[in-house]
Design brief:
Length: about 375
């Protein structure tokens, strides 16, 4: 009744691999990623690209992990381009040599988003737990030489938020045309490390003010996007633009998902595209249907005047915080579990020391977290 038939998955996100040379403490890959090592073969991906395009997908993002560790990336980009997708590559830049960049350009890659961790070598390399700062500077020049627009992304959290002015300055010096300052979303590794990463309200206020000053100073030379932090805003986000409405994520092992962390949700089965067509996964699977639209909602969402706008917020966040994927997202003040969010923020405001050490994402930590139930 409340769930209109789904339109096409306009955006296909091909998570080609969970392998990554970086070890970011805020990585959005599932904490148990080491359990899903069986990557799809090139032929599987080529079929998925074709099937998703037939279903109406128009944009294809290649991400990971680090998608450049796949040596078939150029072939996949070329096929996506041939099929008429707008293609983009989400990368740390590690592995993007001049020759690979030229090959990707020839393959028809439209857009590259290069991620940075901070403005200084020390913090960039600490946060990614690898020595990559100098390499990223080099990659930025390679991207410019190939004529791609300079699009950069930096995930913002307590450990780098006070450097936001320097991050913007660095992006400007490199010639960025677009910089996304994305406040950490607390899932996956960022959720495990939340007590280290969550900023104070004052830090956020300052960071927004500095960003606004830079907007004026740059006078349109670079577009700055400050993606708000929902823990502090008290406003649920319309996550992935609505479950099963726009985004089709395909995990490295072929599981089709409405978002990159949905696999952790209990009681849901998601189809594997090794055995199922994209059409069937999108239109017929129970996993995609479960939280489409508003028909699944219970109170307080089902009678809320904002339900059509925010669609109850994020299902993964509801599960992580309230233990129930069908609950209202606890960042919403109407949620019965909203106090959990307030308490997390208050602990930071009070300067309470972290109980657990910062965990960097790597396969060993993944296996350890999986066996100890930290998911
Ligand atoms: Fe899974 Fe929001 S991240 S629904």
């Amino acid at each position: 009744m409340n769930t209109p038939p789904p339109g096409p998955p306009l955006w296909l996100l091909a998570e080609l691999t969970y392998r990554c040379p970086l070890h970011c403490a805020f990585c959005y890959n599932p904490v148990d990623f080491a359990q899903h090592e069986q990557e799809l073969a090139t032929a599987d991906w080529l079929r998925i690209l074709r099937e998703a395009r037939e279903l109406g997908a128009v944009q294809c993002g290649f991400s990971g992990g680090e998608p450049l560790v796949r040596d078939d990336l150029e072939e996949l980009v070329a096929e996506a381009h041939r099929l008429g997708y707008y293609t983009n590559l989400l990368t740390s830049g590690v592995g993007l040599t001049e020759s690979r960049a030229a090959a990707l350009k020839r393959a028809g890659l439209d857009h590259v988003q290069l991620s940075f961790q901070d403005s200084t070598r020390e913090m960039n390399d600490f946060l990614s737990h690898t020595r990559t700062f100098d390499l990223k500077q080099k990659v930025a020049h390679i991207l410019r030489d190939q004529g791609w627009p300079m699009v950069m992304n930096c995930v913002i959290h307590r450990l780098n938020i006070d450097h936001i002015g320097r991050i913007i300055e660095m992006a400007d010096a490199i010639g960025a045309e677009y910089l996304e300052l994305a406040n950490t979303q607390y899932y996956s590794w960022a959720f495990e490390n939340r007590e280290h990463l969550l900023p104070t309200r004052e830090q956020l206020r300052q960071a927004e003010a500095v960003t606004d000053q830079w907007r004026e100073r740059l006078a349109g030379r670079m577009r700055l996007f400050f993606v708000a932090a929902d823990y502090h805003e008290g406003k649920p986000k319309r996550c992935v633009n609505g479950w099963g409405s726009t985004l089709l994520t395909v995990a490295p092992d072929g599981v089709a998902l409405p978002c990159h962390t949905a696999r952790m949700l209990p009681g849901l089965a998601f189809p594997n595209l090794r055995e199922t067509s994209v059409r069937s996964a999108w239109l017929e699977s129970e996993g995609f249907a479960r939280y489409r639209g508003t028909g699944w909602m219970k109170e307080p969402c089902s009678s809320c005047e904002h339900r059509e706008q925010d669609l109850g917020g994020c299902r993964c966040q509801a599960f992580l915080l309230a233990g129930d994927p069908a609950a209202a997202d606890p960042v919403c003040p109407k949620s019965p579990q909203h106090a959990l969010v307030e308490e997390a923020v208050l602990r930071v405001e009070r300067g309470e020391p972290a109980v657990r050490p910062l965990v960097f994402r790597d396969p060993k930590a993944s296996r350890k977290a999986t066996s100890s139930g930290l998911l």
